[in-house]
Amino acid sequence: MILAEKYELMRKNFRNFAETEFTSELQEKLDRQGGFDWDIHYKMAKYGFLGCKLPKEYGGQGGDTLSYILMVEEFARVCPVLAIYANTPNSLGSGSLLYYGTEEQKKKYIPMLASGEKKICFALTEPGAGSDAGGVITRAVADGDDYVLNGRKCFISGAPVSDYAVVYARTNPELKGSKGISMFIVDLKSEGVSLGKPEEKMGIGGYPTSDIVLENVRVHKSDLLGPLDKGFAAAMKTLDGGRLGVAAQALGIAQACLEESIRYSKERKQFGKPICKNQAISFMIADMATEIEAARELIYNTALEKDAGTKNAPMKCSMCKYYASEMANRVAAKAVQIHGGYGYIKEYKVEKLYRDARILTLYEGTSQVQQMVISGNLLR
Questions:
Q1: Is 305 a catalytic residue?
Q2: Taking the model in full, what pTM does it have?
Q3: What is the CATH number for 278?
Q4: Which residue of 49, 95, 176, 187 is 20 to 30 Å from 7, comparing CA positions?
């Protein structure tokens, strides 16, 4: 796709910020120690990245989906985990509020997310409700002006550093399957809320993940988000945008793998010549570049379709997530192979990229869930 000049300028600005601010020292610290870097979080807020796609009337930049995709891609190209810092408030964190929040809720919460003052996480997954998101058993029972929530959420990205969570809970147990689920905005400092120990993950160090435990947590009815008993459909709509963001993250990781492989293959000599002169290596690089370009075209076009509100945009978001995440893992594996033994050493960037890529086919809906969504749309 030939991008308009304004988008190329955006890409340049996003890339300059990432290459300047996402230092190798910062990346190594986050990968080794985990935690969360608040300095870079506030710096992203200062430049408007946390509100890239959020409406101007709520303190955002008012950017379109393609602008957001370019940001996530360029950030992930330099550091996949720091791309999540900017991705979350523009997708899963704010999506439910933007789609289903009242005007009062939007004015209360979204400006705080755009400014970086507060953080919010998306709490859908449970120990028994992963790919089967409709299997949620967390309960919300009406009691006067409140709902009382009880349950446990797991694998919640950003929970240890968030102020609020959009929690999905069953409000009508008589309705089966995905029906009878509602959304609530929960203050994570409320009495009865506790967090599990941050998970020790294979990759994406620097964006902590933990359980959220709810024990008789009172949430005022004004923090019911969207229509009662219809939260599952809202979750799926929110995930459409999130999946496009994951696809952009995959695109950035794959691009970094390609660039590292080209550079290394030109420098590394075996049998008296650079290894890029060997057909086995050059053909791998050709395959990597072709798959990346195919994913880029699919993702960019879907971003335009999403903003245009086309009928097939939700399905194409799943296509993007499915293809790009699988592609990034294939490309990362080739990058390690091209580097040989050095690709297995932490000193080389592809080792971390390989680990970070692995989450892409898992979170925000596994590849198999995306296949279910795509085939379900085509065969209904």
A1: no
A2: 0.97
A3: 1.20.140.10
A4: 95
